[in-house]
């Protein structure tokens, strides 16, 4: 069996509960992890183009997470209607 480990803390050091970011989908917001932005871009673009996700109870919202298996962070992404 091959093991897998990391020498990092068990909690993401870039984000904290309750942080909010606003994106116009053209670039990564200042202070936002570019790796996470890459992970959740499909959900951001889907909502930004007016789409919804059938498994979500509310239109215009979706949950997505980064792919860091050691320190995953879940994001609630909401479309801001103009």
In round numbers, the mean pLDDT is 87
Query: In total, how many beta strands?
Result: 2
Would you identify the regions where 5 or more consecutive residues have pLDDT less than 50? none
Shape: globular
Spatial ordering of strands, largest sheet: 1-2
- Per DSSP, the total helix count is 1
Topology as a string of helices (H) and strands (E): HEE
Characterize the main sheet. Answer: 2 strands, antiparallel
Proportion of residues in helical segments: 10-25%
Structural class: alpha+beta
- What distance lies between the first and last C-alpha atoms, to the nearest angstrom? 53 Å
Beta fraction: 5-15%
Radius of gyration (CA) equals: 14 Å
Write the layout of secondary structure elements.
Elements: H1 34-48, E1 61-65, E2 74-78
Antiparallel strand pairs: 1-2
What does this entry look like structurally?
With 82 residues, this protein is of the alpha+beta class. The protein has a domain at 34-78. Helix content is 18%, strand content 12%. The protein is built from one helix and two strands, in the order H-E-E. The chain has one helix at 34-48; strands at 61-65, 74-78. The protein has a two-stranded antiparallel ribbon with strand order 1-2. Strand 1 (61-65) and strand 2 (74-78) form a beta hairpin. The longest helix has 15 residues, at 34-48. The protein is globular, with a radius of gyration of 14 Å. The model has no long low-confidence stretch (mean pLDDT 87).
């Amino acid at each position: 069996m091959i093991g897998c480990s990391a020498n990092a803390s068990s909690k993401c050091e870039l984000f904290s509960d309750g942080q909010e970011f606003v994106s116009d989908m053209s670039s990564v917001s200042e202070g936002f992890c570019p790796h996470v932005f890459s992970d959740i871009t499909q959900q951001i673009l889907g909502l930004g183009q007016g789409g919804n996700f059938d498994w979500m109870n509310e239109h215009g919202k979706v949950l997505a997470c980064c792919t860091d298996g050691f320190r995953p962070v879940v994001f609630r992404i909401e479309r801001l209607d103009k």
